[in-house]
Please model this.
Amino acid sequence: MFDNLSEKLGGILDRLTGRGSLSEADVDAAMREVRRALLEADVALEVVRSFTERVREQAVGATVVKSVTPGQMVVKIVHDELIATLGADGQTIDLNAVPPVAIMMVGLQGSGKTTTTAKLARRMTQRDKRKVLMASLDIYRPAAMEQLAVLGRDLDIPTLPIVTGQKPAQIAKRALEAGKLGGYDVVLLDTAGRTTLDEEMMSEAAEIKATANPHEVLLVADSLTGQDAVNLARSFDQRVGLTGIVLTRVDGDGRGGAALSMRAVTGKPIKLIGTGEKTDALEDFHPSRIAGRILGMGDVVSLVERAAANIDAEKAARTAERMRKGQFDLNDMREQLLQMANMGGISGLMGMMPGIAKMKNQIAAAGIDDKILKRQVAIIDSMTRAERKNPDILKASRKKRIAAGAGQNVEQVNKLLKMHRNMADMMKAMGSGKRGPLAGIAQA
Ligand code: GDP
Model:
């Protein structure tokens, strides 16, 4: 799936590969092509607009790290933005409620609702070891009720006995009562769809929702219907309220626009994807995997990530050089504090370095914790450039201004300056190898 979009973006960005620097004109040209490719992939216009704008903003003037081409850099930015648009990983069905947990399936006729209900029941029964009851609320098509019953028999999963003459909301109520009496963990409600979006379907769904109070309302949408699926999702969400989306027929979707659009337009997570007709063809939705597939350039992404990591190493080496020369100013200290925060803060560092673990008690006694790192950075941030370069000019009035700017008191500014002096002294003495980098902090 998503082959076409992948090839197109790949082709466009390859043209950028090898250029010296990324000008605004380069980025604009690339974004025009990205925009065209996304539109051809059936991504909604409003989503295309905001997507390319976000990528553009990041691409123009982005520092192109050493050892990658500007084109590769753009691929990485597009990739990260695809993931951001598709949503975070691991949005699964939430069963965290008093059983029986009701899950309501909504969507158009033929979207794969009944099949997905059976797929979900199978997964929850076999993989998650839950006791599941399925109920069809489709009173308009007796064949639909029978279809679910057949699937249930095949999978050995119970379905609610069919009683004619009941309204959908009444059936939902009966299903939940049966769920309670039978000690079920989950009750899946397969509602009736229509061939098109209509008011009757919406009001019926809203009524069922009000009666059953489902923990999840999942829209089952056919990814092949692209733009229509997006409008459907928007309407259902506004009228009934959705908790998530299941995208079906992803196995036949070569364009992939629906996934991107639906998530962006509704803000609702795509929780599952259907990848075939059989009841085991249900998968978790992985934005990172799909973004990688859309671009088909996973290797480039990790290359850029590695290169960026090396840049940090270069920066660290430069700081070390300045330290040796006794030029360790407050800018350098800020850099060090941020690096510590990036590496998981003080507690993270202690976990990584066995030598430091021994100092744990000392550090705790000095009242050092991760919050202090942020506070210290805030203090340095409210200094002028001149002050950071030459802390000696910091007299009482400047300290007062800095403290106020950082929302701290002068005592804390003094502590930071003392810590900086300790660190600077320590840097000079480096080579004797007696003290670790945190020694200065512990004494502040
Ligand atoms: P409903 O009317 O929404 O309940 O739709 P059905 O569950 O009856 O599905 C309609 C058709 O789509 C059936 O032939 C299913 O086998 C097929 N179908 C459902 N989900 C998928 C899927 O993820 N991939 C493929 N290829 N076919 C699917």
